[in-house]
Amino acid sequence: MPDSTAKPWAGRFARATDSEVEAFTASVHFDGCLYPYDIQGSQAHARGLQRAGVLTEEECKTLVEGLAQVRARIDAGEAEWDPALEDVHMNIEAMLVAEVGEVGKKLHTGRSRNDQVATDLRLYARAAQAQLDAEAHALQSVLVERAKAETETLMAGFTHLQTAQPVTLGHHLLAWYEMLKRDRQRLAEAFRRTNTLPLGAAALAGSGYPVDRQYVAELLGFDSLCDNSLDAVSDRDFAVETCAVLSLLMVHLSRMAEEIVLWASPAFGWVDLPDEYCTGSSLMPQKKNPDALELIRGKSARVCGHLQALLMLMKAQPMAYNRDNQEDKEPLFDSVDTALACLSIMRAVVQAMEFDRERLKVAAAEGYSTATDLADALVARGVAFRDAHHITGQVVAHAVECGLTLDALNLEEVQQFSPAIDAELLSSLTPERSVAARGLHGGTAPDAVRARVTQAQEELSVGPLAMPEQP
Ligand code: ARG
Predict the structure, then answer these.
(1) What is the pLDDT of residues 232-244, one digit of tens each?
(2) How many Å apart are CA 9 and CA 112, to the nearest integer?
(3) 428 catalytic, yes or no?
(4) Nearest C-alpha to atom 7 of ligand 1 is from which residue?
(5) 100 CA distance to ligand 1 middle (Å)
(6) How many angstroms does the Cα of residue 237 sit away from the middle of ligand 1?
(7) What are phi and psi of 162, to 5 degrees?
């Protein structure tokens, strides 16, 4: 049990901390979860001190092993966290001293909680980024798998949520794949800038001990060193950036959720969501509601809010470390937890949802979705596109008036708008032909979608972000 009466910084103080202030400044109830990273960072620091000749081999060994003992105790749920010791760092140091005795007090030589917490948070963030990338990769894999089975499936494509042109369902699912692809690129970029070592910056001016920072970085799998001690302890841009990447990712998941919610509505009837992913109404017995998807949409709001919180946290901080930075953790942790949960639920839903191909096909033909194809056919017969567009507009207005689809129109009546229209042209205005005509790279034609599926499978074969080697 740590001795909470002896705060490590108590020497300068004549009176005890006000209990309200003590509770107000404590963070261990939310930063305690950083313990694996705190211990890992401390073990590397101890080794660095030994190399620098500050600790003997024996002392270093005692500290490294003692820290492993502390870790095992915390893992087993046997540790008692003391809010009087403020944060994870001072709690673990107290546990270490309780474990190994006096030598434990040597661990903090040449280090400050300022470079310590920056190191812990970078270790946490990069592990989170890798885990998020693995979840996003898994969702992408399911999307590609489902897209592959739906390369021929017709559906209505919208702009302004009004029927625009027919598309293939596989193409639509791959649009989601592409959004996630860029999210993963951004995660990898954030990872690169996160994976750099603050330790050695000490409080703000750099450690006064000749620690080989490169060696410590290698022990922790960091691939570079923070090059300025003031910057190293102060900026949390890597946390801001992670929340920015996650805000965009959540906006993407929210858009996907929104579409599936629409598709599952009886008004569309395009997908059926299995019972496992829906909930009922306490009043209306018939209801099967897509609450899980609505919550993904709803939770995107809190992640975007966390990004704002972190930006505002940083904006007026003078160099170097300020206690404001303690407020960086909850927004980051919650963003990571939220995004991980949403990615996992979304994957399960995408995997399980059942498409009603018949209804999708009917929708593909509704709303004069092939009017653009009529204009294109007129262009092929020598009419300038702007004129073809106008003629087609007149034909559609006529069809609306008659309450008929384009292919059901009376040929003579239609020819009054353009003599270039003939029976063959009218009968060719099918959704199948419409999508087949869009076979260029990035287009919706089944062949183009099949080609993109193959490319996507190759992209996914690279696998998610790998965690760095740690000796
Ligand atoms: N709990 C603190 C944080 O999260 C650790 C650093 C405290 N440093 C200090 N000089 N008071 O930022």
Answers:
(1) 999 999 999 999 9
(2) 12
(3) no
(4) 113
(5) 24
(6) 17
(7) -110, 140
